[in-house]
Specification:
The protein is α/β, with parallel strands linked by helices and about 400 residues long. It has one domain: TIM Barrel. The chain is built from 13 helices and 16 strands. Helix 6 runs antiparallel to helix 7, helix 10 crosses helix 11 and helix 11 packs parallel to helix 12. The longest helix is centred in the C-terminal third of the chain and has 23 residues. The radius of gyration is 20 Å and the shape is globular. This is Beta-glucosidase. InterPro entries: GH.
Length: about 400
């Protein structure tokens, strides 16, 4: 299947670096020893046919002071990806920031832009491949969890809208700084997609449910310049739509989750088609997955929905299992068993989960058939891209 990435099925390494409610600094890459075992982790994914991954730089470790960078936490991972022959979409900020930065200040935007440009320079000097980045991961989620409910840094309430705008400003500045270093750079803007509905017995909740559902588009709209134009967004800044989708992304307003089988559940392929109609950009499932024995079944569901979206003319670029490897729970540090790579209790020994690897192989065959069908519709899709995307 020809596309933007080396493989349609991808793996994402959990790289959260936020400060949680008790102010403890999370560093999942360090806890899982992915920073020292990256070469082994990448090779395991290659063995399963996964040649594209999401991974992260840890800004809070790299920037030692304003404009002072120590790349020692990142370079071994970059070198490991190159030696393993794995393509990486690099997260520049996965919720963690240097301790001396006020996230609401102009300095935050300036510092992030300088750091993003410096990171792009490090990568450009060591690789001729077209680079892919996610500048700021999940702006909408971070704005809510850090600006409205105090769970992540900056631990505020009532500041979600302000934080969202600030993160968009930083993302735009960072992307422009990267482009100044390497004009070939491509960007994945990863956001959760949600669907919130009002119970039929609670019609008064309809406006609130609709407003909350619509909020999922705000960060993308701002980046594209459709909203809050003063932030500097524009058509060319919205590149690849990244979709984060899990079993709990849909719910009844004030009530239960609208999971599979619930009459309020909206099929994923419909949500993907709506995104394509709204933005006209290629779409990548940047996060999806389920724990333990549910992993293969969930991947089968998501794959079937993606195939249907492709048959509907939606240009889908891939599905990223996320997390692709066991990781410690953010709040309780329990061992979460998920993804293609299983790790022992000491976070040392790694093995491939054969059932999930076999499921990927099965799903790839069906995906190739859907891709062939999509190619027959390519003239229609390309017309849409030409209409809505800037010339590159």
């Amino acid at each position: 299947m020809a596309g933007l990435f080396e493989s349609f099925y991808m793996g994402g390494f959990e790289c959260a670096t936020h400060k949680r409610r008790d102010r403890k600094q999370i560093d999942v890459i360090a806890t899982t020893r992915h920073d020292v075992e990256a070469a082994k982790d990448y090779r395991l994914l290659r063995d399963a046919g996964v040649r594209t991954v999401r991974d992260g730089l840890r800004w809070h470790m790299i920037e030692q002071g304003p404009g002072v960078y120590d790349w020692s936490s990142f370079l071994p991972m970059l070198e490991a990806s190159q030696s393993a022959g794995v393509q990486v979409i690099w997260d520049l900020c996965h919720w963690g920031v240097p301790a001396d930065i006020d996230i609401f200040s102009d300095g935050f935007v300036e510092r992030f832009a300088a750091y993003a440009g410096a990171a792009a320079r490090v990568i450009r000097e060591r690789s001729d491949a077209v680079p892919f980045y996610c500048a700021v991961n999940e702006i909408s989620f971070w704005a809510w969890v850090g600006g409205d409910v105090e769970t992540f840094h900056p631990h505020r309430t009532g500041h979600g809208d302000e934080l969202k705008r600030q993160l968009v400003r930083a993302s735009l500045a960072g992307m422009r700084a990267v482009k100044a270093v390497d004009p070939r750079a491509r960007f994945v803007q990863a956001e959760p997609i949600i669907n919130i509905v009002a119970d039929r017995d609670d019609p008064i909740a309809i406006p609130d449910a609709a407003r909350h559902t619509a909020s999922q588009f705000e960060a993308w709209d701002m980046i594209r310049g459709d909203r809050a134009e003063e932030l500097g967004g524009s058509q060319e800044m919205l590149d690849i739509i990244g979709v984060n989708f899990y079993w709990n992304n849909q719910w009844v307003h004030g009530g239960e989750k609208a999971t599979l089988g619930n009459p309020y559940h909206k099929p994923l392929h419909v949500m993907l088609r709506e995104l394509w109609e709204r933005y006209g950009r290629p779409i990548l499932i940047t996060e999806t997955g389920a724990e333990a024995g549910a992993g293969a079944g969930w991947l089968g569901y998501v794959s079937a929905e993606v195939r249907q979206a492709m048959r509907d003319g939606v240009p889908m670029e891939g599905i990223c299992l996320y997390p692709v490897m066991d990781y410690p729970g953010w709040d309780d540090e329990r061992h979460c068993h998920c993804g293609l790579i299983a790790i022992d209790d000491d976070w040392r020994e790694r093995t491939l989960r054969e059932d999930l690897a076999e499921e990927i192989a099965v799903q790839e065959a069906g995906m190739r058939a859907a891709a062939m069908h999509a190619e027959l519709r390519a003239p229609v899709a390309q017309d849409r891209i030409g209409e809505l995307q800037p010339t590159r």
